[in-house]
């Protein structure tokens, strides 16, 4: 298997930052208005995270006594920010917490945001794909698969196994910068891209790639894809803040599920460079694929995430990490 690593912000080794796990009340301070200020690190600014953005923009966090800020950290740095104490929590795959825990961290998942595997495989418009012979069609092709150890790569390696695709038969490029896959395909450096919204819709609208050749949300079903993960110590030292956060996040989720028009307006402010002809199909696809269904996470969704990560070879823990150790439902509203 040939692998190319394109790194603009190289992910630090989880082991290298475990010394930061001893930080207390990570990313948490008080502001001048008496609100508890916390930082959430995100790996990308994505459409799937709209329930979190809704809780911020609609004032649900503030009503709960919280001043929540979001910082975008690519290349795996969102996980490291929590481990080092620079962020209160991160939004991302629970498997990232599991991988850190296998190396000595103590992270827990407290709420879900995207409960379907929100990624898609798409092909350059000049690449012929036979849906009845996906393995044959992809043999010898190059694929931009996301950062090494990230959810898109982990899930894609698992799906290759399920589809009978030998990774050695493809040229795999790890592109650390989310969204860079569109430039790789456009430049002819990748035939296939593993991508997510809003980049998927942008590439389709611009004629760079096709509609998805693999709809991963449909393939995997219930899957803990993007969740809120924090240091377990925070749940013990400041449970009130954790409970306030999840309650406000739940209101943001309810807004996205019940007010599609309001969600579209919110998305337009969060993604100002997206034109309406890209944004609306993006939201339509998200609702059709049922990316959001509340902030609770099923045991099955977490277990599948762990199974996929182990099968892909990126979670090596001898069964140490379990649903019970990774998921804390006690703060659900």
From TrEMBL:
Keywords: Signal. The keyword Signal applies. Residues 1-25 form the signal peptide. InterPro entries: SsuA/THI5. It holds the Pfam family NMT1. It comes from the Bacteria. Residues 50-259 form the SsuA/THI5-like domain. It is found in: Periplasm. GO terms for cellular component: periplasmic space. Belongs to the bacterial solute-binding protein SsuA/TauA family. This is NitT/TauT family transport system substrate-binding protein.
